[in-house]
């Protein structure tokens, strides 16, 4: 045999004999990568290590490039998981002869699982079978059984699987097989599969795997086809990686929004009403209302117009928009009324276009920003539904921007700023940005002119560069109607979720004939941008619940709030405050008048910061309790509403719905305590407040939401009030200033608009916590 020139990517090159296996070539030219390699790419094509090398041309002069696939790479993880899925099928065949096999792919994008295999066993499998199957998998792995690839004529492969009574495999070969097909064996087992590969050399390379769960599935996702059982599992290159993933999965189960939603009484999904349809309970409704109110406030401040559109439309509209051609599988069936067919809307775009087209538009009217929290409906497959994260009734924070070419870049930058501000408010600090553009694949059809695509991509790139946002360029991932930016947010345990999207659309403006009159007096086609920040309100709430666990739903935990109220030692504090006689208290007040008198005008000299003006001294715990008793008595109604003890005029906001009262101040302090997770714990036999620093940080973000967002001056004031009122020692997380001081400082600043705004929110929260 002749020699041929082989180069190992980024390593070495040399000559090997034609017909040498990939493993032998790697051993000869790069022994360091030969041992860990699982498979390889030969001139870009993935192959097994047992594949034999052939010259790239007849003369043998062309270089054959080999790129090892290592366990640490994404391709290597895919090979490991795909091979482990085959090992799973081999174990099932050993334990349950007569099992019919479906498909068993690797899962690289699903954060819950690493692979699955669909089977039809002679009897229904149960969770008790999973440990038994896993033990058999480990036995097969320890025997170092070889994965062997065989290429056969299509007719021969069909005969083999027909003899094995594998009708599903025969169907796959008929649908996807070429003139010759590849079949894999695990030598020493009953397993044979129609598969493209590649796979690991032998089963001993599979050491770190775990079977996770069972679920139901239909062949090819069709409810009219055979029902199967899907065995889920995962696999990694090392046991340490598997242990870390299992720990993360346990944390994910603790944070599962479906369980938390049930425990916190936020929402429910009931089969008799329909899968994928959410019933929001009163407490979940409050959480959702807060999100919607915040978003609508931000939309109005940023120049959006709020619109409302119907849930159905004539079927002809969806033919015009192209949804009937490209999206019909995800739409619910048409409904007829008076010989007219209607469909539930899967998107809001055509309705917003209708609003734009309702009147002639000039360049002076643009940009026009239309936003809607509209519910759309999509016929998702039953097997894909997952709590709030994948539903059939979707509330989108949808917006469509109609722009001129001159304003499009500024609009993209504004959308990015809006999204980043939103993430900061809700505490999402880790996210990735993908820029999806056209690729070089000539088989994909893209609508629009090349110059429009180039301009749109340039605008997206310029906007990302202007805000210095790192991003990945995803070639060939653009939608057929325009390039886009997708933002994936990482939650508290590192799982990515796509929320924000900003998309150009060259399709709908042409289909609907949108125009505006430019400065030259001639008609022009506007540029249309789809924009969603939450993505869907359901998904955002689900991600938020899992990310913060009980942080956001704390606002709706009425039952827990009542328990916390019962634990709060108000009466003992009041009794202890009365232990001192009146002369002693009078002497104390005479010695420290500013420290004890709460009746001074908060606008005068006594309104100076009492925390920084008078640092705490040792032995002041009893004085704290004395002040707490006095404050508690005042907050129980001894002072009439709107009248101060010194007889001065009422508050400047007295007489309005938003006046600040002592009872409101007490509510602020108590809500602040709960939000910060402040609890009274035993410290050397005495009761002392202690807080979790992580909860404090979370609370600040939450209160920023309630007070208008980080761009508002009132947030700076309110955060400053809270930081002064409850200073946290970062070393031990102990509160260095107690709740009475917090109440006093907030009370003294009750003329501040920030505190007035905070009171409005606290009243709503108190009504939940104390219900």
**Number of β-strand runs:** 29
* N-to-C span: 87 Å
Q: Label the overall shape.
A: globular
Largest sheet: 8 strands, mixed
Structural class: alpha+beta
User: What share of the residues does DSSP label as strand, in percent?
Assistant: 15-25%
The radius of gyration is 33 Å
Strand order of the largest sheet: 15-19-20-27-24-23-21-22
Average the pLDDT over all residues and give the rounded result.
Answer: 76
Could you describe the 3D structure shown?
The chain has 771 residues and is an alpha+beta fold. It is 40% helix and 20% strand. It has 27 helices and 29 strands. The strands form eight sheets. Strands 15-19-20-27-24-23-21-22 form an eight-stranded mixed sheet, sandwiched between helices. It has a five-stranded mixed sheet with strand order 2-1-5-3-4. It is globular. The model is unreliable at 552-671, 673-719 and 723-743 (pLDDT under 50).
